[in-house]
Amino acid sequence: MELYQFRHSAFCEKVRLLLSAKQLSYRVIEVTPGIGQVELFRLSGQRQVPVLKDGADVVADSTTIAQFLEEAYPEPPLIPEQSGARALALLLEDWADTSLATGVRMALLQAASHDPILRKALLPSATPAPLKGLVGAMPADLLGGVGQVFGRGSREQLLASLEHLSQLVREDDHLVDDVLSIADLAVAAQLYHLKFPASAGVELRQRGVPGIVDNPLLEPLFSWRDGIYRKACRGLQEESGHRPPQSPGQTTAGSARDPGPSAR
């Protein structure tokens, strides 16, 4: 099994959590900007990540991958069978992948516009060093338009949603019923960019969006997120933090990039 990914894509993080929760072994193929998009297109008929290859099956889109894994590897179940719980879990997954993802992405871009270290660290690992240096050296005022797009109203809406979530997870370990589900994994994956977990690497861990990463009202939410990681990883540790297990033979494809808003 192979996962074509961009390491810091929240939707790839979602698939890694799914694979880990299913206790499935897989090989990571890190996708980088450039000509490799052609390779990914030849494989999957499109250029977005994540893409999962399992034998003859090639599946794109994190939601479609989740459904594929549930059918091909039903244990442990991550999509509830009971109709009401199933509907709620899928609704929360869709909300995380759309509304929450949009708010998180804009907040991250706004933070990165003022943080050259964050801008450089988020680039794919195979990005040429001169380009990384150029991106890091860009003046913040050239990126100021991001802040205008993500205005105060949008930020307040995101904060309100996060505070509601924080209150919700204070009372329950899981968002649906009393077991780990796709809802938990989808929401946890989107929180990746707001406060980076240890698995994001030395440059990024504990960094995030100012006003969110250091907001005491949201501490229960990020503690819950870290707990979901531990449950999905079944106690396995990689590097200095909890992350979904990856096969030792990580490969770099000359390949595609994280396509941003359209990736799911």
Automatic annotation (TrEMBL):
Q: Which CDD domains match?
A: GST_C_family, GST_N_family
Which processes are annotated in GO (biological process)? glutathione metabolic process; L-phenylalanine catabolic process
| Entry superkingdom | Bacteria
Could you tell me which InterPro entries the record lists for this protein? Glutathione-S-Trfase_C_sf (IPR036282), Glutathione_S-Trfase (IPR040079), Glutathione_S-Trfase_N (IPR004045), Thioredoxin-like_sf (IPR036249)
Write out the ranges of the annotated region (Disordered): 236-264
Q: Where is the GST N-terminal domain?
A: 1-77
Write the record's keywords in alphabetical order, separated by commas.
Transferase
Keyword Lipid metabolism in the entry? The reply is no
Task: Tell me which SUPFAM superfamilies the record gives.
Answer: GST C-terminal domain-like (SSF47616), Thioredoxin-like (SSF52833)
Does Protease show up as a keyword for this record?
A: no
Give GO MF terms, alphabetically. glutathione transferase activity; maleylacetoacetate isomerase activity
User: What protein name does the entry list?
Assistant: Glutathione S-transferase family protein
Q: Which organism is it from?
A: Aphanocapsa feldmannii 277cV
